[in-house]
Design brief:
Blueprint lengths: L9 H15 L9 H9 L14 H8 L15 H9 L5 H11 L9 H17 L3 H13 L8 H17 L3 H13 L4 H14 L2 H18 L7 H22 L2 H14 L12 H15 L3 H19 L4 H16 L3 H18 L6 H16 L3 H15 L4 H8 L2 H9 L3 H19 L4 H16 L3 H15 L12 H20 L1 H4 L3 H15 L1 H15 L3 H29 L7 H28 L1 H7 L6 H6 L5 E8 L4 E7 L5 E5 L3 H12 L17 H11 L4 H4 L4 E5 L36 H4 L1 E5 L2 H9 L24
Parallel strand pairs: 1-4, 4-5
Antiparallel strand pairs: 1-2, 2-3
Helix pairs in contact: 1-13, 2-11, 3-30, 5-6, 6-7, 7-8, 8-9, 9-10, 10-11, 10-12, 11-12, 12-13, 13-14, 14-15, 14-16, 15-16, 16-17, 16-18, 17-18, 18-19, 19-21, 21-22, 21-23, 22-23, 23-24, 23-25, 24-25, 25-27, 29-30, 30-31
Length: 816
């Protein structure tokens, strides 16, 4: 397989060609005066101005910048093609792994000659890096660099050695040291790659002022190199690639993902004509991995999957199966599949990524392996495979213990792990983990940050499950308002499904805590609050779809489209800077600059003000759109206002362990009940009843009997406890959640039925069953909010006409 731009699909090739055209516009033609060009480059990248008080709309627009929409190509529906190629590639034989490990374990020579020692540590450092020993690689390269003067290395060789040291420092998270090393490389002579790496590591330090300065100097230096006499076309393309990748690193650092995407596409577009990149095995695979990441962060998961697939197939072609690049590409694709909710396929690939690294001899406590195993834990939790998830957690915890508490916390202080521990009966351990996690996150990000709120909500949920309802209600009171506030949401769009699951878990536990209040007889205030929480939990996926629909509708109004894009851009930048702040605060004190921390907090504050100003403008000028993207959960009173005098509302929520039902009449109190039947049991029961409603048989006699007794038992558990609130109504409006959405409640009997006797006519016995539909007309709606929307629509004026229809009730071709 030839892995280059010519192998791309036609749609991707069109994008590729478009990137080439756009990319050439980055640099001004050589015939233009160099001074003008330099001035133009130095004018790019506006700083965010410090602001006091609230920002005006114009200032908010200056802060957030602009974004452009992207393109989409649908990926295959399965990963069969990926697994087939993986299985075709040979695995590393044990003896080869032993040889690689032996190279990394080699003893230093018994000599004092600087050149020999430099050469040894350089070789051993490279060997360590190949098998994932980033700490050893860093130590060996530092030792090699310490011999540079005594070995009398020339400037070019010093540059190459220091570049490798800088890479190793960045890989190990020593961003301040990596920045110092890259500045030394630059002092030794113009190296365009050094500017790119400097920008990347400075983005990791959180020092945005230094980042802007390095970017400006990099632009000027690369532009100057473009005017060298005799520059070849391939050399020019290499410079353009370095510039584009530097821009991508800069935009990734400040959370402008569409701009980062455009820069990466430019770099990919230049590759066919370059000198270095064109002949560098796996270069395109690594760039497509980066492109997949920035696409996923925009929520464009289908495109991210295409890019990740391209990266993985390219890595397999260039490096084979057992290589760091292949393992990282497999992990990237697994992350995208996880974000798409394709957990079984994600598990296959993440296990492959782990196996590849272990076969290579990578130590199991290294960052790369730990990140992959952490992803595996999340995938197993998403599949509710609690036992396997906890086994993986225990194994990773054991491996990381010798690395220290802070390092271990980077991978294991996650709220979903606590739920797995709870599910396998280790509740005390779950509580301890969550208390430590909440304390640490509040210290770094503050009490009102979304991450603090979700972790506090998880702690409250575990307290609910362990019977500590008083503490739980305090935690829910502190966390739920933040979780339901869009202004506090700043997670990456690639995390949308995971965050929805987490919020639903917290809200479901909150409903349980409210239901348990007052000895299991909650007050009307608690019933109303539980109703609102159920509506919020049910409506998340619907709201995401409505938000996407609203975004498309906004495109019809240029001003709204611009404001909406800027507000979303601010949200993404806030998410990126908060993640960066968290990472900086997790670094050792000698790798952290307190002034940088304060600068990040100020920038986040500015962006929040900008986002608030933009939302105020949207709410004032486009109130319908504002309501669409940020609706308030329906309340009992708003639901009552949508009912007619002869209607009652039946609202259900099916949870993991139990279900809940509310009945609301037009007049009078709502009635609430807990049903001791969780999602799995409810799904089994509904499936049993549906078997007779959609039998998929050829003959009437093959239709299985409808289990009237089971149907009545469901009525007894679900509707009978709240009967007093709906029995007087003529029509029922039903919000059916989860498995209940697959069963028409009209087929539930309202009383026990005598044994079925057909009396010679097929199904005649069902005539005497007191079906619910005999006494009440039933309308099903997806949510209470949808009922309000439907009732607000103007009536349709349409001339009605009589209709008489005939059909074949047998639906059997031979007997028709």
């Amino acid at each position: 397989m030839e892995f280059d731009s010519m192998a791309l699909p036609r749609r991707a090739q069109a994008i590729h060609e478009d990137c080439v055209v756009k990319a050439h516009t980055v640099f001004i033609d050589r015939r233009i005066v160099a001074l003008v060009i330099l001035a133009g480059f130095l004018s790019g990248g506006a700083q965010l101005a410090a602001a006091s008080g609230s920002l005006s709309l114009d200032e908010a627009i200056d802060v957030t910048g602009a974004m452009e929409p992207g393109l989409l190509k649908a990926p295959p529906r399965t990963i069969d093609d990926i697994t087939r190629v993986l299985n075709q590639k040979a695995v590393t034989p044990p003896e080869e792994t032993q040889r690689r490990v032996a190279q990394a374990d080699a003893e230093p020579p018994s000599t004092r000659k600087p050149k020999k020692l430099l050469k040894f540590y350089l070789k051993r450092g490279k060997a360590a890096r190949k098998i994932g020993r980033s700490e050893q690689a860093l130590d060996d390269l530092k030792k090699a660099a310490s011999y540079m003067k005594r070995a009398k290395l020339g400037p070019k060789k010093r540059q190459r050695l220091l570049m490798q040291l800088g890479f190793a420092q960045g890989t190990a998270g020593r961003f301040l040291r990596a920045g110092e090393t890259m500045r030394r490389v630059i002092e030794l002579g113009g190296n365009p790659a050094a500017y790119r790496v400097l920008v990347k590591v400075l983005a990791g330090t959180g020092d945005l002022e230094a980042l802007e300065e390095a970017r400006a100097k990099g632009k000027a230096a690369i532009q100057k190199m473009m005017f060298r006499h005799g520059m070849s076309r391939g050399g020019e393309m290499d410079l353009r690639i370095n510039y584009a990748r530097m821009e991508a690193a800069y935009y990734e650092g400040i959370g402008k993902w569409q701009e980062a995407e455009r820069a990466l596409r430019q770099a990919i577009a230049y590759q066919p004509e370059s000198t270095h990149a064109k002949h560098n095995p796996g270069w395109l695979a690594k760039r497509y991995k980066g492109l997949s990441d920035v696409l996923a962060r925009q929520g464009r998961l289908a495109e991210a999957e295409v890019a990740a697939r391209t990266a993985l197939l390219g890595a397999l072609e260039s490096f084979g199966r057992d290589n760091v690049a292949t393992a990282e590409a497999a992990r990237m694709l697994a992350n995208v599949l996880y974000a798409e909710g394709r957990y079984a396929e994600a598990e296959i690939l993440i296990r492959e990524a782990i196996d590849i690294q272990l076969r290579m001899g990578t130590p199991p406590d290294t960052g790369r392996v730990a990140r992959a195993r952490r992803t595996l834990i999340s995938v197993l939790i998403a599949q509710e495979n609690w036992t396997s998830a906890v086994q993986e957690y225990d194994g990773l915890n054991t491996e990381l213990k010798k690395k220290g508490k802070a390092y271990r916390g980077m991978f294991l202080k996650r709220p979903d792990i606590a739920i797995a521990l709870l599910r396998v009966g280790r509740s005390d351990e779950a509580l301890g983990l969550l208390k430590a996690t909440v304390k640490d996150t509040r210290r770094r990000l503050g009490k009102k940050h979304f991450d603090s709120a979700i972790q506090t909500g998880f702690l409250a949920a575990v307290q609910t499950k362990t019977g500590d309802h008083e503490s739980a209600l305090e935690g829910f009171a502190a966390s739920v308002p933040i979780l339901l506030s869009r202004s506090r949401r700043s997670e990456e769009e690639s995390d949308a499904f995971a965050v929805e699951r987490q919020i639903a878990f917290v809200l479901e536990a909150y409903i349980e805590a409210l239901a348990a209040g007052n000895g299991g007889k909650p007050s009307q205030e608690a019933v109303a609050e539980a109703f609102r929480m159920a509506e919020a939990a049910r409506g998340q996926s619907v709201q995401r779809a409505l938000g996407a629909s609203g975004a498309r509708a906004a495109l019809d109004d240029p001003k709204l489209a611009d404001l909406a894009r800027r507000e979303q851009d601010a949200q993404k930048q806030i998410a990126t800077l908060f993640a960066l702040l968290s990472d900086v605060l997790n670094t050792p004190a000698d790798q952290r600059n307190d002034a940088t921390v304060e600068s990040l907090r100020e920038r986040i504050g500015e962006l929040r003000e900008a986002r608030a100003a933009l939302m105020q403008a949207i709410e004032k000028e486009f109130p319908d759109y504002a309501e669409l993207i940020n609706p308030k959960p329906a309340t009992l009173e708003s639901a009552r206002a949508s009912l007619t005098s002869d209607e009652a509302l039946i609202s259900t929520y099916v949870g993991t362990d139990r279900s809940f039902v509310w009945a609301l009449p037009k007049q009078g109190d709502a009635v609430f009940a807990t049903v001791e039947m969780g999602r799995e049991d409810m799904a089994d029961l509904v499936g049993l009843l549906r078997a007779a409603l959609e039998p998929n048989v050829q003959e009437l006699g093959d239709i299985p009997p409808f289990d009237v007794a089971v149907a009545f038992e469901l009525f007894n558990q679900l509707l009978a406890p709240v009967k007093e609130a709906w029995i007087q109504a003529k029509r029922l409006v039903v919000v059916a959640h989860g498995p209940l959405g697959y069963l028409p409640l009209s087929v539930l009997p309202t009383a026990p039925s005598p044994p079925m006797i057909d009396e010679g006519v097929k199904f005649a016995g069902y005539r005497k069953v007191p079906w619910l539909v005999r006494s009440h007309a039933i309308t099903v709606v997806p949510s209470v909010a949808s009922l309000k929307t439907l009732r607000a629509l103007p009536p349709v004026k349409r001339q009605g006409e009589a209709f008489l229809g005939f059909g074949d009730p047998v639906f059997n071709w031979e007997r028709a």
